[in-house]
Each structure stands twice: as C-alpha cells, then as structure tokens.
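Morning!

This is the sequence you dropped in the shared folder:
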Amino acid sequence: MNAPPPLMAPFEWRVRVYWEDTDAGGIVFYANYLKFFERARTEWLRARGVEQQRLREAEGAMFVVSATDLRYLRPARLDDLLLVTAEVTEAGRASLTIAQSARRDTPAGECLCEGSIRIGWVDARTLAPRRMPASLLQALGLA
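The structure's back. Tokens below.
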C-alpha cells in the first residue's frame, strides 16, 4: 500500500491475540484487525489528551469512520503479541486519513495487516460533517 508520508510520528499500541480474536482456523478473524485499529486510534487520542466521550459532550461532535482500505499479508495466531500503529497521513478540515498496521511484536516485526482509515468529524446529532475545532487539531499536533 502506497500511503503518503505521515504528518506525525507513528503511535504504537500493543495487543495480545486472545481466543475470542481467532476464527475456526486458529488465526485472527479478518474483521478483528479493524477492532485492533480502532483501539489503537482511541489510545492515540488518549495519549494526546483527547477523550472521545468528553469531546462529544463538549463539542457536540464526534469522529466516525467513513472509509477503510485493508490488505491482509500474513496471519496472526492465538497468543501472538502485536504492535499496532497509527499515523496521520492527511488532515483536512473535517477529516483525517490514518495509515495503520499490525505487526508481530518481534525483532523481525513482520507486517500482518496494513491499511488506511479515513475518519470524519461530524455533528453528533445530525451526522453532518463539521470543521474540526482548532483546539482539537492543536491537541493532535496537526495545527
């Protein structure tokens, strides 16, 4: 996947593969990579001092996923420790594009899944796109 260069340093978050993450073949069920990516984005926001529920209450707006594009390269298995990354590659007025990957947390660090997630900033009531506030962009290191 040819993503543009990041606008910020990659955020890293570790996750262990549990039984509930695997399918009948003993490998991580493909949709669970989206869960891993969501959790890494949420932890990235927390690391920047942004709590999504508090942000929604204060701003009346929230992030929603508007597009995903994933490539599955190798399987992860039960008990694997993964390093999930998130890095902003594009920042618009009402959206962010985030490159994400899940790698085995080993010295070789082979990439298992990679993708691009686009999230939009929308009015919490109407779901209409809104411009991200300057304070949010500043907290994310994008202003």
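Headline: The chain has a mean pLDDT of 94.

More detail when I'm at my desk.
O.
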